[in-house]
Amino acid sequence: MVAQPFSPEISDPFAGDAVFELHRGGKIEVTSSIHVRDADDLSKAYTPGVARVCTAIAEDPSLVRRYTWKSNVVAVVTDGTAVLGLGDIGPAASLPVMEGKALLFKEFGGVDSVPIALDCTDVDDFVETVARMAPTFGGINLEDISAPRCFEIERRLKERLDIPVFHDDQHGTAVVVLAALRNALRVTGKSIEDIRVVISGAGAAGVACARILLQAGVGDLAVVDSKGVLHEDRADLNPVKLSLARDTNTGGLSGRLVDALEGADLFLGVSGGTVPEEAVAKMAANAMIFALANPNPEVHPDIAHRHAAVVATGRSDFPNQINNVLAFPGIFRGAFDANASRITEGMKLAAADALAGLIAADDLRPDYIIPSPFDQRVAPAVASAVAEAAVSDGVARG
C-alpha cells in the first residue's frame, strides 16, 4: 500500500482536486520480482547465496546484465532547470515530471526506471554525479535540462559511459517530428529534398530537430531564435548555434521569423510565442504546420487550418499530437534488447521510419499522420527497428 504523505490532521488545500489526488503519494513504486516465503528463499535471494552471484560478476562483469536489473533499468535524471514550459523550478518541483517519465517507460515500453532529481547545476558536477551512479543502470535518460548546458552534459556522458545516454527533450522530439513529417509529405505529395523548413526555437528540441531533418534529406532549412534567423555573420551565437548556422540556411536568409516563413513548406515551432496569421498566410501552398508549444501552440490549429494542408501540435486534444512517448520507451526497449553501447543516429532514424510506417497508405489522411500513444503496435515496432539498427551500426553486444 502506498504511504500517504500527509497525516489526516493536516489540512490539504488540494484535497478533492483530481490531478493532485492522482499524484498523492507519488505515481510509481518499487515492487519485487520474486517472493521470499521461507528460509530457503531468503538464503538464495540474500546471504549466503547472493555472494556466489557477486563473485561471478566480479570475475565476469558482463554477467551483471543477466543476474541483476541493470539490463532493463533507466535512470531518468534532471536538475530541474528546464521543466516542461515552467522553466527553472528546481529539482524538488521537477520530481512529479520525472515520476511521470518513469511511469511512461514502464507502461509503454516495459522498461523499469528510477527518477533522479539532482541538486546541482554545474556541468562538471552533474556529469561526475551521473557517471558515478552509472554502474547501477543500463541507460541514462536526461530530462528537462536547460540549453546550452544540456548539449555539453549529453556529449560528455556519451563519451564517458558505455551505456545508452539519451536526452529525450532533444532526440525524442526529433524522432517523432521526423516520423510525422514523413507522412505529412505523403499527404501533400511533396518530397523531403525539395521542401523548405523553418524551425522556431534553437534550444534542445530545435537543434535536435534540425539535425535529424538534415540527416533525413532536408536541404533547405533555417532556424530562428528570439533574435532572428541563425546565420554565420551573427556575433551573438553560442558554439551550438554557430555550428547549426554553418550547416543550415543555405538560402542566406536573415531577419525575423515572419520574414523566413514566406514561401516555407513546413513551420516547426518548438519555442512558444505566437506567430501572426499574416505570416502563416505567406507560406507555400499545401503547407505543413507543426506548432508544438504547450499549452498554447505558436499557431492555433483553427488559424493553421486556414492556411495549411497538415497541422500537428503537442496537445492531446487536437489531431496529430507530436508526443515523445511515441519514441523513448521503444528506443530504450530496442537498445536494451540489443545490449547497445549507445544510441546512434541510425537508431533514431530507424525509430522515426518505424513510427511513420505504422500508418498504412489507405489510412493516411491530413488529421492522421502519426499513431496514437495508445496504439499497442508503437513500442514493439520502434524497439524492433532500433535493435536492428544497433546491429547494423555495430553497437549491439549480443
TrEMBL record:
Binding-site residues for (S)-malate, renumbered to this chain: N294, N323
Annotated binding of a divalent metal cation, by residue: E143, D144, D169
Top-level taxon in the UniProt lineage: Bacteria
Stretches assigned to the Malic enzyme N-terminal domain: 25-158
InterPro entries assigned: Aminoacid_DH-like_N_sf (IPR046346), Malate_Decarboxylase (IPR051674), Malic_N_dom (IPR012301), Malic_N_dom_sf (IPR037062), Malic_NAD-bd (IPR012302), Malic_NAD-bd_bact_type (IPR045213), Malic_OxRdtase (IPR001891), NAD(P)-bd_dom_sf (IPR036291)
Textual note on the cofactor: Divalent metal cations. Prefers magnesium or manganese.
Protein name according to UniProt: Malate dehydrogenase (Oxaloacetate-decarboxylating)
Species this chain originates from: Kribbella pratensis
Species lineage: Bacteria, Bacillati, Actinomycetota, Actinomycetes, Propionibacteriales
